[in-house]
Amino acid sequence: MKNSEIEELIKKEIDKTRKLIEVYKEETKPVAPDCTIDILARNDAMNNMSRVSALLQQAKAKLAALELSLTKVGTPQFGKCVGCGKQIPIGRILVRPESLYCIECSE
Length: 107
Ligand SMILES: [Zn+2]
Hints:
The chain is mostly helical and about 110 residues long. Helix content is about 65%, strand content about 0%. Helix 1 runs antiparallel to helix 2. Zinc ion binds near residues 81, 84 and 102.
């Protein structure tokens, strides 16, 4: 695969991740306390909020990792497993850009 194609794939994933972050941010916006809401519904909303904040943190970490990998495309460090030195498949880099290991070494 050409470096330009790899860059294209990473950029697309960056775009997708940015949009996801916007969605999560929207969902974690503080809502005005509503007295009509019952306690169970409020608990649900709180649970959902903490779940979405966790996803938001994950997405932010992923975005940072993707941006870092983008700067490494074409260098010997790009996508190299720190465990065995083999090339990590691009599909895995896009899904788990923060991982420094190939599938075999991370198991
Ligand atoms: Zn490995």
